[in-house]
Amino acid sequence: MTGLPADGPVVWPLAHHRGALVPRDEATLPVGSIALRYGISVFEGIRLYRQDRGGVAPWLLRPHLDRLRNSCRLMGLDEGCAADVPAIIDELVAAQGIDEDGYVRVAASAANSGGIDEAAVTALTVTITRAGRKRRPGDHEGMRLGISAWQRPSDAVFPSAAKNISAYAGPRLALAQARRDGYDSCVLRTADGVISEAPTATAFLVEGGRVVTPRLSDHVLPGVTRAWVLATAPSLGHEAVEDAVTEERLTAADEVFLCGTGLEFGPVREVAGVRLSGGSPGPVTKALVDAYFAQARGATAPTGVDLGLTGGR
């Protein structure tokens, strides 16, 4: 089976589902499954980048699998399924002749039927979708970012370190409202009023060359791209810290950007109607983007990352 033509569909047709390669449409779960009844399904999105030397490779695979294991532990799923993912990605790439950028979605779901207290039987599903860069710094004006009235729940309500599908229901509503209000995206706050994160991405600001992002304790998902930025910024001459971030700090920042596996990087030109002074993308954002793609495509060695997964998180 060969790679898709340039004008073909945006998905490759095979899925690895419950131990076998099947057509995507056959990668299903029972309507009465715990995944569908109670939203017990964790996932990872992993970028597949074409390498400068040829071929494709999954980007930052190890931290993605570490987070998948942690999400499974938190949600009562079998964390051992993560061990099979590297070979499955290779199998899907080879079977479909994939030789361009893609987005690998790995899902571990409670496939069995049962009540809310039933132990989960884990089903692993892996698919790959064509995925070019969504935003290219320099060829657009940057995002308009709103401050949502919706909040991120505390860890006493739901574990923010679990990348579970149900955790996206509230942020989805927040993003829909932001779009209705004329924004490209938004950030949510905690009950204490500090900035947490965007619906599907981490928020960063730049203050005088210093790179700042909300703390994990502000109900932030331990993002893989977030960890990469924190590890890489010092090598580019910029201190990188986690701190309490307020709306006032965002609107006063020199630069603001969102980042995440799906989005990659989204430079921001305006926060809550306030135009940022540093431009979009600003020099620090641009330097990070350049370093990211140099590493992702194999031109330079990748930065090691620490997701900060400790204790019950």
Automatic annotation (TrEMBL):
A family per Pfam: Aminotran_4
GO molecular function terms attached to this record: 4-amino-4-deoxychorismate lyase activity; transaminase activity
Swiss-Prot/TrEMBL GO biological process terms: 4-aminobenzoate biosynthetic process
Any single Gene Ontology cellular-component annotation: cytosol
Gene3D superfamilies: 3.30.470.10, D-amino Acid Aminotransferase, subunit A, domain 2
Keyword terms, alphabetized: Aminotransferase, Transferase
Superkingdom, taxonomy of origin: Bacteria
Keyword Lipoprotein: no
Family matches, as InterPro entries: Aminotrans_IV, Aminotransferase-like, BCAT-like_C, BCAT-like_N, Class-IV_PLP-Dep_Aminotrnsfr
Family: Belongs to the class-IV pyridoxal-phosphate-dependent aminotransferase family.
PANTHER family membership: AMINO-ACID AMINOTRANSFERASE, AMINODEOXYCHORISMATE LYASE
Name listed for the protein in its UniProt record: Branched-chain amino acid aminotransferase
Source organism: Saccharothrix texasensis
